[in-house]
Specification:
The structure holds two protein chains of two kinds. Chain A is mostly beta strands. Helix content of chain A is about 0%, strand content about 55%. In chain A, the strands form two sheets. In chain A, strands 2, 4, 5, 9, 10 and 11 form a six-stranded mixed sheet that branches. Chain A has a five-stranded antiparallel sheet with strand order 1-3-8-7-6, with no helix packed on it. Chain B is mostly beta strands. In chain B, strand 7 and strand 8 form a beta hairpin. The chains are: A mainly beta, B mainly beta. At the A-B interface, strand 4, strand 5, strand 9 and strand 10 of A face strand 4, strand 5, strand 9 and strand 10 of B.
């Protein structure tokens, strides 16, 4: 099956630092999505990307859909305590094949 | 607008027992998905309903898993008999049929522990 390699697996940063994480795939996706999961909650959609090369921002978050359609990255600027959690990338093919293929997640911890 | 809800939030059962998980999607969402995250691994797709019909059940592990969505509203996922490897968090997600179909909204999950 499809595999998404997400890195890094975990990050330990100080408040105020910028964060960068990425996903690479062995297959082409037509949509990339980034989710965040807090403990005891389900994944919450952060950003959705629909076109190769697209760069989209949502507040302090910026994500890009790679030109090859096989990768995506997520940046978080000026991290704050509520950014703590697990971030997942997910790829999707198209209408009629809408299941999401998830990356393994990046656990973000902010060191006080 | 109420989000996706799932019941129960936690379930602890013994190997060989039966468990039924329930998902109520966002009102009006015809697409309903089940996913599972086994400890430490990625979230994996199980199946996809469009209204009451199974669109894609390629992720269902085996025939011990049965999903239904009678009437096209809420869905149930039954595991019978449960095995140790079924432990994990089961997520449900929904999305509307028309418009931006790619954005799936997730419920809080049901944590299943099989002992």
């Amino acid at each position: 099956g499809q595999q998404l390699n997400q890195s890094p697996q975990s990050m330990f940063i100080q408040e105020g630092e910028d964060v960068s994480m990425n996903c690479t795939s062995s297959s082409i996706f037509n949509t990339w999505l980034w989710y965040k999961q807090d403990p005891g909650e389900g994944p919450v959609l952060l950003i959705a990307l629909y076109k190769a090369g697209e760069l989209t921002s949502n507040g302090r978050l910026t994500a890009q859909f790679g030109i090859t359609r096989k990768d995506s990255f997520l940046n978080i600027s000026a991290s704050i305590p509520s950014d703590v959690g697990i971030y997942f990338c997910a790829g999707q093919f198209d209408f009629g094949n809408e299941k999401l293929t998830f990356g393994t997640g990046t656990r973000l911890t902010i060191i006080p | 607008e109420a989000g996706v809800t799932q019941f129960p939030s936690h379930s602890v059962i013994e190997k060989g027992q039966t468990v039924t998980l329930r998902c109520d999607p966002i009102s009006g969402h015809d697409n309903l998905y089940w996913y599972r995250r086994v400890m430490g691994k990625e979230i994996k797709f199980l199946l996809h309903f469009v209204k009451e019909s199974k669109q894609d059940e390629s992720g269902m592990p085996n025939n011990r898993f049965l999903a239904e969505r009678t009437g096209g509203t809420y869905s149930t996922l039954k595991v019978q008999p449960a095995e140790l490897e079924d432990s994990g968090v089961y997520f449900c997600a929904s999305s509307p049929l028309a418009g931006t179909t790619y954005e799936q909204y997730f419920g809080p999950g049901t944590r299943l522990t099989v002992t």
